[in-house]
Structure formats: structure tokens, C-alpha cells
Write a structure and sequence with these properties.
Elements: E1 2-6, E2 9-14, E3 20-26, E4 29-30, E5 35-36, E6 47-48, E7 50-53, E8 59-60, E9 64-67, E10 70-73, E11 84-85, E12 95-100, E13 103-110, H1 112-115, E14 124-133, E15 136-145, E16 151-153, E17 156-162, E18 167-171, E19 175-179, E20 185-190, E21 201-202, E22 209-214, E23 219-224, E24 229-235, E25 241-246, E26 252-258, E27 276-278, E28 283-294
Antiparallel strand pairs: 1-2, 2-3, 3-4, 5-6, 7-17, 8-11, 9-10, 12-13, 13-14, 14-15, 15-28, 16-27, 17-26, 18-21, 18-23, 19-20, 19-22, 22-25, 23-24, 24-28, 25-26
């Protein structure tokens, strides 16, 4: 594990475990919530607090898709044993490109002929840069299509947040996709009523939520009321979607900025699905900033 520091902040990074973050502490207070994420193939029983999602965010139903006239079958890597989820980069070992006191840059090269076409059938090179400041953490992602053909691509980042001390959440979005029991979109809904976070409101343990918000304005706010701790999330324009997962009775929730909606590759009729078609040599990139403060 590598550790970067800035002010009272400390972040532990696992290059060998999907480029994941193991912890983010501010004066011993966990900002990301460390969980034992057995879905990471290389680190069962390993504590993980956040990880990158590429070359797509969330699920591809049954790991099947068709692209430019060809059919593809990916290896299932979701908990249900049938879907493919979050790409393959989170299950791969990343190389350390550079390291300094407050920053680390990682890279990953995927070759389907060597690494397996069922992981992902197209070749790519990815870069992941974590930069820690006294007031927060920057996550920069870059994806380059190194194949000879076009490639469908999405980006995302998956942190866990603690649901301690009466947590409140706020963000705005145009609409949302309500997921079924398999985490796949059932249909588009209006962002109102119990689905709306336009006004900050509590996120309760008993309230199960698993939705993909579309047309997110790329600003979210979290407040842990009784500890007077605040976190703001801002992102670049590429992250048009925000996944909110609030598992019932779990000690954590997630807010995941993502470029694509769930199962986007199999939703060609959705104009704002967020899937980017990269030509050979083209690049998709974006960054997310997490700003933390205590009053």
C-alpha cells in the first residue's frame, strides 16, 4: 500500500488491487467508509473504501452486448453471478507511474489477446491520478482507445460513505432511472417526491434506494449533522450521471459519479445514456473533487 498525505489528510492506495483506495482519514475520521468488498476478485476479505470504474460504470446485463454489428460475451463478475459490472480495471493490478508526498499516478494497459477478451474485447490504456490537498481529494481518470477499431466507453468512481451521526444528502438532477432487483434500469422517472434530493434531507437506514440519476448538475453535498462534518462532490462535465445506492440497514451508502447510465451499452435508443464511442487513438477523461471540512 502507498500512502499520500496533506495537512490532516491521509489516503492509502492499493495499486495492486484495482488502483483502489483503502482509506481516507482526516484527523483519524474516516471520510470514505472502509468495507470488506469480496466482489474485488484479487482482494477477498481486503478492506476497500473506493475504486475506479472503467471501461464502463455499473452493469451490463448478463455480460452481453452488440456493438457495430458484432456480438460480445463478457465474464460475469457481479454478485448475482450473471451480470458484468464496473468493467475490468477494478480487478486488475495497476502500475505505479509516479509518486510524491501528496499525489500518486497509476497506469493500466489492457490487451485482450493477453488478458482475455471476456474481460473486455478492446485494448486500452488508462491513467488514474490521486492528488491530496489540505481541503480535499482530487481523482483524475484518463482512458485511451489503443485498439484499431471503435470502442464504447464509460467512466465512473465508486466511494463508500459512512452513514454516521445523522447523515443528510443533497443534489439536483433532471430525471432518474429506477433499478429493478437485479440493479438494471426499469424506466425513467420524474425526480420528485421520495426520489428527490433537491432539498437536503436525511438518508435513513430503513430507506432502500438504488437509482441512477440522469442530468446531474455535477454538485453534491453530504452533511454528518451531529459531528458538523461536510463533504462536497464536484466533477467535470463528462460525469452526467450519479448513482445513489443506500442498502437497507448497511452502515454505508454510495454516491458514484459516472459518465454512463446502468446497462448503457444495451440502451441504444436512449439519447443521454452517456456512452462515448472512442475512435482509435481518442481519449476520454474527467476529474472529481471531494472537499471535506469540519466546523
Amino acid at each position: 500500500m502507498l500512502e499520500i498525505k496533506a495537512g490532516h489528510n491521509q489516503v492509502g492506495i492499493y495499486p495492486a488491487l484495482g488502483g483502489a483506495i483503502g482509506y481516507w482519514l482526516c484527523q483519524d475520521t474516516p471520510i470514505f467508509y472502509p468495507v470488506v468488498n469480496s466482489h474485488l476478485a484479487k482482494c477477498k476479505n481486503q478492506i476497500i473504501a473506493a475504486y475506479p470504474l472503467l471501461p464502463y460504470s455499473n452493469r451490463i446485463a448478463e455480460g452481453k452486448f452488440e456493438f457495430e454489428g458484432r456480438k460480445y460475451q463478457l465474464e460475469p463478475n457481479a454478485a448475482n453471478g450473471k451480470d458484468s459490472i464496473h468493467g475490468n480495471a477494478w480487478n486488475r493490478e495497476w502500475d505505479l507511474e509516479s509518486f510524491a508526498e501528496n499525489k500518486a499516478t497509476l497506469s493500466l494497459v489492457h490487451d485482450p489477446l493477453k488478458d482475455g477478451k471476456k474481460q473486455w474485447p478492446f485494448s486500452y490504456k488508462a491513467k488514474l491520478k490521486y492528488t491530496l490537498y489540505e481541503n480535499g481529494l482530487s481523482v483524475y481518470m484518463r482512458f485511451e482507445n489503443t485498439d484499431r477499431c471503435n470502442q464504447p466507453v464509460g467512466l465512473g468512481f465508486h466511494p463508500y460513505f459512512p452513514r454516521r451521526n445523522f447523515v443528510e444528502v443533497g443534489f439536483s438532477a433532471k430525471t432518474l432511472w429506477n433499478n429493478d432487483e437485479n440493479g438494471l434500469p426499469q424506466g425513467r422517472m420524474s425526480n420528485d417526491g421520495r426520489w428527490s434530493f433537491d432539498q437536503m434531507r436525511p438518508l435513513c437506514k430503513s430507506e432502500h434506494l438504488d437509482n441512477c440519476y440522469a442530468g446531474w448538475d455535477r454538485f453534491a453535498f453530504i452533511r454528518w449533522k451531529y459531528s458538523n462534518a461536510y463533504l462536497t462532490i464536484t466533477s467535470s462535465r463528462v460525469f452526467e450521471h450519479l448513482i445513489l445506492s443506500n442498502p437497507e440497514s448497511a452502515p454505508y451508502f454510495t454516491l458514484e459519479p459516472a459518465s454512463n447510465m446502468n446497462n448503457a451499452i444495451n440502451m441504444p435508443d436512449i439519447s443521454d445514456r452517456g456512452l462515448t464511442i472512442l475512435k482509435p487513438g481518442q481519449v476520454l477523461k474527467g476529474d472529481i473533487f471531494y472537499s471535506f471540512s469540519v466546523s
